[in-house]
Design brief:
The chain has 386 residues and is of the alpha/beta class. It has 15 helices and 9 strands. The longest helix is centred in the middle third of the chain and has 26 residues.
Length: 386
Amino acid sequence: MLLNDVVKEKFEKINLNGVCGKGGLPLMYEGEDVYVSGDYYHSIVIGETGSKKSRLFAMPMVVNILQAGENAVITDPKGEIYNKTHKLAEKNNYNIVKLDFSDLKNSSKWNIFGEIKVNFEKNNIARALELIGDFSKKVIVNSVSHSIDKYWEVAAAEDLTSLLKIFFLTERESYTFKSFMDFYRFFTGKVLKLKKHLKIEIPYEKLSRDEKAELIENTIKEKKEKINSLKILMEEKHSFERIKLRRKIYDIEDEIKELEGKNEENFTLYLRKDEYKNFIESEEVFLGRYKTSPESTTNICIMQIIAAAIQNLGGNNLELMEILQDGGFKYEDLYDKKTIVYLIIPDQTSIFDSLVNIFVDDSYSRLSDLILEKKETSLKIKLYFR
């Protein structure tokens, strides 16, 4: 049997100009009809530059996916596929997500911590912490040289995991890449540079930040008044009693120093929930190591690897941080909503590769979790990754 006959027998024929029954990779053309592989196969198309891979395979594949009402995540280095297919997506009432790393001002938004955040909101703490560990490993592995000793890779991933755990388990206005960068700069620029100990405490129940500060201020005032009273009393006492009073004053002064430390918001973080104390205790070793030896060669080397990894994610790119936040794409959209995602990446640089890897990995992970949560066996709408 000829190859053409095998294709015709085993695969579905669709017309690219009409409504398709299913999407898939085009295998053979016959006029305006095309035979597609619409099953769950992994496929690879290899060809040199200019061999028409996009024109003969990628573009028709996206078109028949859109005609079939199925979903897709499309890696589109030049934006060529987006330019030629987004109008069809609009016509077919698709939710269009354009993550454009070559034109950040016109890009959709995506919270890089979206999956972790969702699990915290659902109180799936163990799963959220697992995802934090996975995230750290991906970020470090994608940024370090292959020649680096495995010890440094593992150590950097563990310390980045600790930083991210502290970031997510403590109170702040938002949980985005931008707010993490603020926390990271605070930790490296203040806690380490000034050799301060970062305290993590359970917040005073039902008190706002302003109320906490006011409570501390009033308590300090009362203790200072107590010290003044004891000093007056000392003048009336004999030497032995004065020694006992002086010890009381020293104790109260230590208490004041402790309270003043609590009032330094820069060096005190508050847990989001009391029960998070169980999850943060393991980070005391991490914090203690950087407190006692912030300038040790080991700690400096680890922080340099983490800094390079964050830089590789675009940590100093203000425009990029504006799109890596809430208000845009949600992984759930790929589960049961007609959605197409275009990942437009400049092909002249590899700086955004880590972000794309994280996006694809997290899409798989989040959708797998959704299927389990909803007790289904598959997605509501078939999804292709190209």
